[in-house]
Design brief:
Layout (H helix, E strand, L loop, with lengths): L1 H5 L15 H29 L25 H15 L5 H26 L8 H20 L24 H19 L7 H18 L2 H7 L10 H19 L8 H18 L3 H7 L1 H20 L9 H7 L4 H21 L5
Helix pairs in contact: 2-3, 2-9, 3-4, 3-9, 3-10, 4-5, 4-10, 5-6, 6-10, 6-12, 7-9, 7-10, 7-14, 10-11, 11-12, 11-14
Length: about 350
């Protein structure tokens, strides 16, 4: 909005030429996101408390979690405000990739909101059924994939790190693949959201990493030099990533140990879906497995635990997702959180390093 209102004034006032620069708008999207989360955060938390939207704690989990009973949830609304408002203010709203990414973030946020609202406000423990949640996630992912499939000039090839000449054309497998990436990322973040600040820290690091990927992918000179796919217009997603980073850091203000509010499904589903959408548009889907390694391990720990118990009658971990396993082994919650952040930072650096290892 500000881009469209103020940049045209550059013809008469040179100062407004600054709104042309993507780096400037990305930085201020991040700052705006921080301001938005700090402004709306206390109000949202009070509103959630008045609605008695309180986290339901499992009695079969770690005993230390029982003291969290009654903490407000659905705080992902704060994150969504911190993403949407700065993006609308600072991004080029004529860019289709910006709207597609917002479509996934808002759509997945809506799915999570309905599920959370039914559970914690209407006191319906079932919320949305797993089939209902999966149906809507797949449907939104399919709409996203079909739209990209039909966008002129958008590549349906899959690019692999370390191999500059390996990029098979997925053709009609492109849409199911896109659905897999977005739905998988969304649910992986959702499974990781089990400790105070555990999910939002890695999400912010992932968003910062994809900020770099988006900027490079949208710059033909940098993309050519680094031998990665050039995606015309993808650079504008750096603004969305900046908003993601800012809102994540802002939410961490309230969500750090001990948490004042939890993000709920409205936050975790939207954030994971957003990361998946960014990975698809920037053509860095495989790298999401690396930079989002913590989310991948959390999801795999659940899959292996369920499969092992179903077919062998034995558990692999004391409890899944794996962060609960470490808790039950006596590792303090803050230590688990910070270590997972450190691991994510290392993985992000590894993912960035692949830009030159081709």
């Amino acid at each position: 909005m500000l881009y469209h209102l103020l940049y045209p004034l550059a013809s008469s006032v040179k100062f407004f030429n600054i709104f042309k620069y993507l780096t400037f708008r990305t930085i201020y999207a991040m700052i705006t996101a921080l301001i938005v989360t700090f402004v709306v955060g206390p109000w949202v938390i009070r509103k959630l408390e008045s609605l008695q939207a309180r986290q339901i704690i499992r009695t079969d989990g770690p005993e230390s979690h029982l003291k969290k009973q009654g903490t407000p949830t659905m705080g992902g609304v704060i994150i969504l405000a911190g993403i949407i408002v700065p993006t609308l203010l600072w991004a080029d709203l004529a860019n289709g990739y910006v709207w597609l990414t917002l479509f996934i973030i808002i759509g997945y946020g809506a799915i999570g909101f309905v599920d959370d609202y039914k559970k914690v406000v209407e006191k319906n423990p079932k919320g949305l059924s797993p089939r209902q949640k999966m149906f809507w996630q797949l449907l939104l992912g399919a709409v996203f994939g079909i739209t990209l499939f039909n966008m002129p000039g958008f590549s349906r090839e899959l690019y692999f790190p370390f191999f500059k000449n390996l990029h098979p054309d997925l053709w009609f497998c492109f849409i199911p693949f896109v659905m897999l990436v977005i739905v998988g990322a969304s649910n992986a973040v959702n499974l990781t959201d089990g400790l105070d600040g555990l999910a939002i820290g890695p999400v912010a690091i992932n968003a910062a990493t994809y900020l770099l990927f988006a900027y490079i992918a949208g710059n033909v000179k940098l993309a050519t030099y680094l031998q990665i796919p050039y995606v015309a217009g993808a650079g504008e997603l750096a603004v969305v990533c900046g908003a993601l980073v800012g809102s994540g850091i802002g939410f961490l203000w309230y969500n750090s140990y001990p948490a004042e509010v939890f993000m709920g499904d409205v936050g975790s589903l939207s954030l994971g879906g957003g990361l998946g959408a960014l990975a698809v548009i920037t053509k860095q889907e495989i790298l999401l497995v690396i930079v989002g390694g913590v989310f991948v391990v959390e999801a795999l720990s659940v899959i292996f635990q369920v499969g092992s118990y179903k077919y062998r009658g034995k558990r692999i971990f004391r409890m899944a997702p794996i962060h609960h396993h470490f808790e039950l082994k006596g590792v303090a919650e803050p230590k688990i959180i910070v270590r997972f952040w450190i691991i994510t930072l290392i993985l992000a650096l590894v993912a960035i390093s692949t830009l030159k290892m081709r």
